[in-house]
Amino acid sequence: MYNYTDFDAAFVQERNAQFRAQVERRIDGSLTEDEFKPLRLMNGLYLQLHAYMLRVAIPYGTINSRQMQQLAYIADRWDKGYGHFTTRQNIQYNWPELRDVPDMLDALAEVQMHAIQTSGNTIRNVTADHFAGASADEIADPRPVAELIRQWSTDHPEFQFLPRKFKVAVTGSPNDRAVTKAHDIGLRMVTREGQAGFEVIVGGGLGRTPMIGKVLKDFLPQEDLLPYLEAIVSVYNLLGRRDNKYKARIKITVHEHGLDDIRARVEERFALIRPKFTGVDQQMLAAIEADFAAPQFKQKSLATFEAAYTNDPVFRAWVDTNVSEHRAPGYAIASISLKAHGQTPGDASADQMRAMAEIARVYAHDELRISHEQNVILPHVHKSDLPAIHAALKASDLATANIGLISDIIACPGMDYCALATARSIPIAQEIATHFDALKLEHDVGPLKIKISGCINACGHHHVGHIGILGLDRAGVENYQITLGGDGTEDATIGERAGPGFSADEIIPAIERLVLAYLDLRHTPAETFLQTYRRLGLSPFKEALYPQDRADAA
């Protein structure tokens, strides 16, 4: 993983010192909240429903044990003993006191972490495939490129006050685990005649106007990446609307001007910019790549693993559900669910963070990943260590075998924390998980992605859920709309609204009707919910959602 240079350390230290002085001025009244707002947003500090919230960057989701230990310390020392992992591979602290935030930032800097550009109208934390560098289906590890983009975009003088926030995602696999098509810019590694490059996708995004990104360039050589990105963001910075924040994202710019016009403008700008890039960026990339060298993989007997897999059904269920194929022989990728039934999706206590840190240090080459699905990944584990890892996870209530299943729900904080939310998300996610756990249907149902947002901003990615749930306010009453058939993979699709919404009391029975209908409609147990939906369309699921007593409303 990337290690700070002397420049990086000095840069973060100076930014923290500046913000400490700004916080002092806010506390003594020299700055009003309106004057303080743009300064705090540049440093990842929000004012939420009940308190300030600090959002900490975990670039491309990569973290080591010492950093995870420090996140636990910060949770205990300055928050309420837990943190919330987000859909942008960040961690949020929901209860800091303003006077403590500078100390929190200094504690982060001690382990080469920061909160810069996790908010504001700038290029946000660059995200990546959480299996990067480990997955068997990968063309190449995309994280060195993600780090190069992070360095290029941090405090870029032209892009600190964009029309709206700007998000970039990178994947090195043809199987898209980074939701690249729902980003302002999505980058998918491809090869052409042996040359490495990228498919460049632009104009994706969710929120009140969900759109799937469009291919701006089907093959961009790697050495052209930064100047081409600079051309895209420059064009957006000039064209993007500043008169209406709801129409300010690049997806609207692409929609209003048309893809061909945007492509022509980008190519014109790129032709001007490209000669100014003399190869220094590629030299930087080569140096960065050295930090992402693969660990020294071990060669060990698999007898311990095979015996545990054969004799322990609980362990076997966990492996079958939470463990994925690794590119190195004898190795696996283990996903740690932060979705124990009835718990808040994405939350981890300080004790759990410490447990995960120790497991990574002892068994996983000192590396963890945060996924956009709000789980934690051990990317490099030898199969012989999986029984010991599973036992350690069980001791910390982290061994739930539900990755990709109905209780592995993405949920935003909703009205429990967020000032923008119009409905609760967390209680709905908890009730769905406990309900289907009680029915013992979860493994029979199989892969099913439920995503919940507490407002139209769609931080819970509900538009690309197989079942999406959007919480809204209807005359002071929480109302939950359902969308069906969404997909965040390489075949990305926006879900289709099923019909009128449901009250908080009605939403769980409605989801149960959907799931039972799917079990009746699927051809075989191997046919997933999404496959069944694509085969049959909305109609039979709508009939299940709205029985006869709701027919008139539907």
Give a verbal description of the structure.
This protein has helices at 6-27, 33-41, 65-78, 101-109, 143-153, 225-239, 250-257, 259-273, 280-290, 303-311, 313-322, 350-363, 386-395, 426-439, 442-445, 504-521, 529-536, 539-545, and strands at 45-47, 52-56, 62-63, 82-85, 91-93, 127-128, 168-171, 185-192, 195-202, 214-221, 323-325, 331-336, 347-349, 368-370, 376-382, 410-411, 450-453, 467-474, 477-484, 496-497, 502-503. The chain has 554 residues and is α+β, with helices and mostly antiparallel strands. β4 (82-85) and β5 form a beta hairpin. It is globular and about 60 Å long. The mean pLDDT is 97.
What structural class results from the helix and strand content? alpha+beta
Mean pLDDT: 97
By DSSP (H or I, 4+ residues per run), the number of helices equals: 18
Spans of at least 5 consecutive residues whose pLDDT stays below 50 are: none
Summarize the structure.
The chain has 18 helices and 21 strands. It has helices at residues 6-27, 33-41, 65-78, 101-109, 143-153, 225-239, 250-257, 259-273, 280-290, 303-311, 313-322, 350-363, 386-395, 426-439, 442-445, 504-521, 529-536, 539-545, and strands at 45-47, 52-56, 62-63, 82-85, 91-93, 127-128, 168-171, 185-192, 195-202, 214-221, 323-325, 331-336, 347-349, 368-370, 376-382, 410-411, 450-453, 467-474, 477-484, 496-497, 502-503.
